[in-house]
């Protein structure tokens, strides 16, 4: 009888120890439940933040650039370097539709307002008149010329910065509206020319005597200058997941460079309308 009571008491003792110190299986199940709770909590926080909790971005874009206004009818004026008669030659170099490419980067300080920087290149073919033209001033009114382009393009590099604005179309929508106003510097390069002048059907000596302007050939260099530039743009962004995005932009660029040609300052107003698309990384 005493032995039976002893064995029963020992069994109760070991059962009580098992209640105080859980088995390894119980501990593993408990840890797994804690991990699951943490994952559910993390998902709830992610949903609460919304579709776009990123602040920074970098992007590359490219597209077409359409000259507008005076730039679409551009010309450069040169002084006549020979003869005693003073005069000027105006060589047309109309900018045709070109292309542009840029790299942009920025950071949003609030949900809607941020700042961005941009480095952009633009290039345009320049087209001279195909027919001989009247040069046009004073004693040179009957002087005609032919123009050939050596380097047949206008080129620009832009370095700009300014505020940008971000407006999501909904809390969970991947689409957002974008706007920007950028200021900075433009480096503009003009085309270079071969110019040939002549008097059509008239001997220059019979017409002008010793004061006449000789028919001539002249080569000009391309000219590069810096000027203030501004850009105003709107666009759309489509977010892909939490890291990438697609961009579509419509921008107007304006600048008025002054070229120093033969010690004379010549202004050229430049305006372009750019349509471009690109790919970005958000962080």
Helix percentage range: 10-25%
Low-confidence runs of at least 5 consecutive residues? 45-51, 81-85
Order of helices and strands: HHEEEEEEEEEEEHEEEEEE
Biggest sheet layout: 8 strands, antiparallel, barrel
Shape: rod-shaped
Radius of gyration: 37 Å
**Number of helical segments?**
3
N-to-C terminal Cα separation, in Å? 78 Å
Tell me the fraction of residues in β-strands, as a range: over 45%
Main structural class: alpha+beta
Strand order of the largest sheet: 1-5-6-9-10-13-14-17
Mean pLDDT: 77
Total strand segments: 17
In short:
With 283 residues, this protein is of the alpha+beta class. The protein has 3 helices and 17 strands.
List the helices and strands and how they pair.
Elements lengths: L1 H19 L3 H26 L6 E13 L6 E5 L8 E5 L1 E2 L2 E11 L4 E15 L5 E2 L8 E9 L1 E16 L6 E15 L2 E8 L4 H5 L8 E3 L4 E17 L3 E12 L2 E4 L2 E4 L2 E13 L1
Antiparallel strand pairs: 1-5, 1-17, 2-3, 4-6, 5-6, 6-9, 7-8, 8-11, 9-10, 10-13, 11-12, 13-14, 14-17, 15-16
Structure description:
With 283 residues, the chain is α+β, with helices and mostly antiparallel strands. It is 18% helix and 54% strand. The chain is built from 3 helices and 17 strands. It has an 8-stranded antiparallel barrel with strand order 1-5-6-9-10-13-14-17. Strands 7-8-11-12 form a 4-stranded antiparallel sheet, with no helix packed on it. It is rod-shaped. It starts with a helix and ends with a strand.
């Amino acid at each position: 009888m005493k032995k039976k009571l002893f064995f029963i008491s020992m069994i109760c003792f070991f059962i009580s120890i098992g209640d105080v110190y859980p088995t390894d299986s119980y501990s593993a199940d408990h840890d797994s439940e804690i991990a699951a709770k943490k994952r559910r909590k993390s998902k709830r926080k992610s949903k609460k933040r919304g579709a776009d909790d990123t602040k920074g971005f970098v992007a590359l874009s490219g597209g077409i650039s359409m000259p507008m206004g005076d730039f679409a009818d551009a010309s450069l004026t040169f002084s006549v370097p020979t003869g005693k008669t003073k005069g000027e030659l105006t060589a047309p170099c109309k900018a045709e539709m070109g292309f542009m490419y840029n790299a942009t980067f920025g950071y949003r300080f609030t949900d809607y307002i941020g700042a961005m920087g941009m480095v952009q290149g633009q290039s345009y073919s320049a087209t001279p008149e195909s027919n001989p033209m009247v040069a046009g001033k004073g004693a040179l009114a009957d002087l005609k010329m032919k123009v050939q382009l050596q380097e047949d393009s206008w080129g620009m590099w832009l370095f700009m910065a300014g505020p940008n604005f971000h407006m999501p179309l909904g809390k969970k929508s991947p689409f957002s509206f974008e706007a920007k106003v950028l200021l900075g510097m433009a480096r503009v390069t003009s085309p270079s020319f071969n110019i040939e002048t002549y008097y059509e059907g008239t001997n220059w000596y019979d017409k002008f005597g010793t004061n006449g302007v000789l028919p001539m050939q002249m080569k000009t260099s391309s000219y590069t200058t810096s000027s203030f530039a501004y850009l105003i743009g709107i666009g759309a962004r489509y977010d892909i997941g939490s890291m990438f995005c697609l961009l579509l932009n419509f921008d107007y660029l304006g600048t008025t460079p002054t070229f120093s040609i033969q010690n004379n300052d010549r202004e050229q107003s430049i305006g372009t309308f750019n349509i471009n698309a690109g790919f970005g990384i958000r962080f």
